[in-house]
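Complex 335.
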Amino acid sequence: MTNFTILAIESSCDETSAAVLHNGKVLNNVIATQSVHENYGGVVPELASRAHQQNIVPTVAEALNEAAMKTEDLSAIAFTRGPGLLGSLLVGTSFAKGLALAHDIPLIEVNHMQAHVLAHFIEDPKPAFPFLCLTVSGGHTQLVKVTGPLEMEVIGQTQDDAVGEAFDKAAKMFGLPYPGGPHLDKLAQQGNPDAFPFTETDMPDLDFSFSGIKTGILYFLQKQERKDPDFVQKHLADLCASVQKALVSMLLKKLKKAAKQTGIKEIAIAGGVSANSGLRTSLLALGENMEWNVFIPKFEYCTDNAAMIAKAAEFKFQAGEFADQSISPLARMPL
Ligand code: KG4
Ligand code: ZN
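Predicted structure with KG4 bound:
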């Protein structure tokens, strides 16, 4: 179909987002961030779903108004089915189903992790198939082989914590506010990455593990603070830079291995942690060295957003893949 409009809704974690896509072009990307979690040092699932309930109507209305579209103009309504927090997913799913039912509009379910990968197709330059995507977020760390817009295979993943979680937990140990990843990144830019060589964990094949380094940081801090209670304060930037260096190195080693194993030189990163300045810079340098074509999303398409849901939905729309009203959210939706 050449003339179509899709409304997309994202509510998998702590961002309520709505976007409108018209004839392949994302017209907007409205995001309501939930600040309520800052007081708790992490996302509180029950508070997240309540905030989604408060935000969803104004967020969708703003996206439609900004795009000068009405519900009657919509060819489809897309929503994140999973993975994510069940209560949060329920709000977006129920809202999408209700709106679709009331106006007799087709529904499209979207896998959140697939959408992170497909964020690369919102704007140029776009990777060519097949490409490898390192998808790094607060809940996932995956190496994905992408052979088509809807054909993806996870070829490596974390066996415990996600790398975003490792960034956030390290930041929390350093006394930084939640979510700590971006704060740690900012401080790391003024620190010495070689100040504290944290031990990297290696895993077989293309898998990752981040729980060991997290415990390593904790024990290191406990030991140092016994000698000097102000240790963290005195060395904050160096600690951030050193942790960032180790985490980025663990990611890039596996990416390099995956590229070698598959012979693929089209390399992308996606997900919240792809906003990390250390990862972006090191990947660009490695890419030049390895003669890869490297694709890094714009900042606003790294963290959770509905524009990527809209883009993923467009591929499904073109393939005629619609969902029916009996659909329910899935906290663990495999890629
Ligand atoms: O993809 P995302 O928005 O949500 C999930 O699906 O999890 O990713 C959020 C994660 C959080 O762990 C956050 O701290 C991390 O991405 N993050 C960063 C940066 N920006 C966001 N981590 C390191 N450096 C950043 N600049
Ligand atoms: Zn995400």
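Residues 13, 137-139, 164, 167-168, 179-182, 185, 271-273, 275-276, 303-304 surround KG4 (ligand 1) (CB under 6 Å).
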